[in-house]
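Thread: quick sanity check before group meeting

JM: Hey all, I'm pulling together slides for Thursday and realized we never actually wrote out the predicted structure for the chain we discussed last week. Dropping the sequence here so it's in one place. If anyone has concerns about the input, flag it before I start.
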Amino acid sequence: MPVTDHAIAAYLGLAIGDALGSTVEFMTPREIKAQYGLHDKLVGGGWLHLKPGQVTDDTTMSLALGEAILALGDVDALAAARAFDAWMRAKPVDIGNTVRRNLLQFRKTGHPEAAYSDHDAGNGAAMRVLPVALATFGQAEAEVRAACRAQAHVTHHCALSDAACECLVFMVQDAMRGADKNYLLHNHAHPLAARHPEFRFRAVKQQSNPSGYVADTLQAVFQSFFDTDDFRDCLVDVVNRGGDADTTGAIAGMLAGALYGMREIPAEWLKDLDAQTRDQCEAQARSLFSAH
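JM (edit): ok, ran it. Output follows.
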């Protein structure tokens, strides 16, 4: 399959995982089982009372970032900050506390980089990093890392967040090139955990009800991604862990889409995803990937 197919699948995977997970966000696995049995449909609802197939900030922030990259032809911190600020002014259905706090600070100062803080180790920068992976495909490693940090530091200026964002981008890019899961495990996930022990994970399911802490998020995502064999099982496994399920779903969907391609995405999920979102994700994936 052409690499573009995997780029589109990554973006649609992000949106599908977001929409699937939002239904059970902040629920425990026991609560999910009691209410849904196995949650595997885009039915909306949840604490945000979404329509079936509607997405949250994971996808809409990604789209805002992608538009800024395409408008400028580069990943630029100020352009990203302005795009995120406009996104916040449009009253999104959800916004994380760290994102809101640092965007309000940007409004005051005009400076697009938040102050460094180890406390800002949430998953808000990692959830929206896919446009960077597509826009920097084929660039030198140093350039890719700089682009990751340019967008991330607008709201999350933190070593653990940086490490997660960069790992995810390189995983997506290598998956699009045809790398298998074993390669991604030994060349990205394990080295990340070696550098930052907070990200260590076991193959057996351990991270249920993952919080918005970026290490919790990636532990859950990696367990689901590496312990399943197709796109559907990966997403169903991760969102049924509950917790910050829209974001674990979005990130797992991004990785699984990049790895498996469009043919592995269930047709009913594509059909049930909000049509405007589906069209935006596909168009932006094509534009970002073809722009370099």
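AS: nice. The chain has one domain: 3-290. The chain has a mean pLDDT of 95.
JM: adding both to the slides.
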